[in-house]
Design a protein that fits this description.
This is Protein spire -like protein 1-like. A four-stranded mixed sheet has the order 6-7-5-8, sandwiched between helices. It has a two-stranded antiparallel ribbon with strand order 1-2. The chain has a domain of 101 residues. The termini are far apart. Helix content is 35%, strand content 18%. The protein is globular. By secondary structure, it is an alpha+beta fold.
C-alpha cells in the first residue's frame, strides 16, 4: 500500500499538481481549491470559497428569532457601473441609518465587494454577522420575497375620532 501511495505522490509531483492533502474543492462552484482556512456556511455547513461566500449581517443577534414579515433584505453586489454602485451605496446608508422598528434590515454582502461600497460598511461594522453560501442566500431571499407577497393588507384601524362619533 505504501508503494502505491508513493507512486501516486510521485506522479502528482511530475504533473506539477502537488497539492496538500488538506486541500478541498469548493462545494458550490467546484472550481476553486479551498486550503487550510476555508469559509463554512453557517446554515448548511458546506465548505465554500471566497467567491461563493456571502456575509449576512443584522442589527442585533435576537433578530434571528423575528418573524419573516419584519425582515427587509438588502442585497449588495459588485456593480460594474459606478452610477448603479453609488445608488446602491446611498440606499444602503439610508436603510441602515434610518431603519424603523417595523422592518429590520438584513444585509447580504459578498466578500469581494468593490472599494466604494465596502467603505460604506462602517455603519454596519459592529452588527453580528455570519458567513453563508450563495445557495443559502438565494433560498433566504426567495423565502423573504414570497413571505412579503403573502402578507395580507392590514385592516384599517379606527381612529379615536371615529370611536367618539359613535
Amino acid at each position: 500500500r505504501s508503494a502505491v501511495m508513493s507512486e501516486i505522490e510521485g506522479s502528482r509531483q511530475r504533473d506539477g499538481s502537488s497539492i496538500s492533502s488538506r486541500a478541498r474543492v469548493c462545494f458550490h462552484c467546484h472550481k476553486q481549491m479551498v486550503f487550510l482556512w476555508p469559509y463554512r456556511c453557517h446554515l448548511c455547513s458546506s465548505v465554500i470559497c471566497c467567491d461563493c461566500c456571502v456575509k449576512m449581517s443584522m442589527p442585533f443577534r435576537p433578530c434571528v428569532h423575528l418573524p419573516l414579515s419584519l425582515i427587509k433584505a438588502l442585497r449588495l453586489s459588485k456593480e460594474e457601473d459606478s452610477a448603479t454602485q453609488d445608488q446602491k451605496s446611498s440606499q444602503l446608508l439610508f436603510e441602515v441609518e434610518c431603519w424603523d422598528c417595523s422592518r429590520v434590515p438584513l444585509v447580504f454582502e459578498p466578500h469581494c465587494l468593490a472599494q466604494p461600497l465596502a467603505s460604506q460598511r462602517e455603519t454596519i461594522m459592529h452588527w453580528p454577522s455570519m458567513d453563508i453560501c450563495t445557495k443559502c442566500e438565494q433560498y433566504l431571499l426567495h423565502v423573504l420575497s414570497s413571505q412579503q407577497q403573502c402578507i395580507p393588507p392590514r385592516k384599517r384601524s379606527r381612529s379615536w375620532t371615529e370611536t367618539e362619533l359613535e
